[in-house]
User: Fold this.
Amino acid sequence: MGITDKISNTAENAKGKAKEATGKMTDNESLEAEGKMDQASAKAKQGGEKAKDAMGDAKDAAKDALR
Assistant:
């Protein structure tokens, strides 16, 4: 995963946690739900990036095995 992607996903997750906490404190269900959605989005992006990294590693390992 690229460092900029990792930072962006971490920031999105933190923003989501803050929105969720603010929503809980102010009894704003909409804001709380939005925060949970931001967190879910960040986690999905992190999963996608990890999968891409794993595929790249597998590709490199296959190339090395053929040498």
In short: Residues 5 and 49 are 8 Å apart (CA to CA). The chain is about 95% helix and 0% strand. The chain has a mean pLDDT of 92. Residues 3-66 form one domain.
